[in-house]
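DATA SHEET
Item: assembly model
Revision: 1
Owner: S.N.
Input lines:
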Amino acid sequence: GQQVMQIPQYQHVQEGEDFTTYCNSSTTLSNIQWYKQRPGGHPVFLIQLVKSGEVKKQKRLTFQFGEAKKNSSLHITATQTTDVGTYFCADGQTYNNNDMRFGAGTRLTVKP
Amino acid sequence: NAGVTQTPKFQVLKTGQSMTLQCAQDMNHNSMYWYRQDPGMGLRLIYYSASEGTTDKGEVPNGYNVSRLNKREFSLRLESAAPSQTSVYFCASSVTSGPSYEQYFGPGTRLTVT
């Protein structure tokens, strides 16, 4: 099964509202990556977090890695319709050191 | 650069038919991957190739075979398609294997097995 759990599964917001998705693991993660997939599209890499407590920002997107490296979050400030899509986290804790496991994703819809 | 390309974009098969999904990358990446994506399940790794000449099973390999034809190309074969294999298939590549390298995905193949 999946090693990272993502919540919520779905989120519907009004344009301008904030949005947060969470990624949780029962084990310590070596690193975590975030991807975005637009409807009908393919996953696109957003960012990678490696250090405990790390915070990175990309314009309206803020990514955090927990102090214990067991959870991560993606926060979008003042959502826009262009933010619509599914956001996946992928953990670097692999079972054979050569692949990543993806969370089930959070699907974001934005009402204009 | 085209990045990662996949063919075909869409395919409908009947149960028991076989087909090969093609993937190619022009980024000189060493590692390539095949995933399937089902609603609510995220991306699940089928097979991967850490480098040219090697392939390994991922999380859900049953019913599939792969070939790393050369550094650029990595194909996925369904020998006898089943309705459970209806899914969207993504090929991806990365500079090298390991969890620290971002993956670049192709546009996907939408496969329906009736």
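QC remark: Chain A is about 0% helix and 55% strand.
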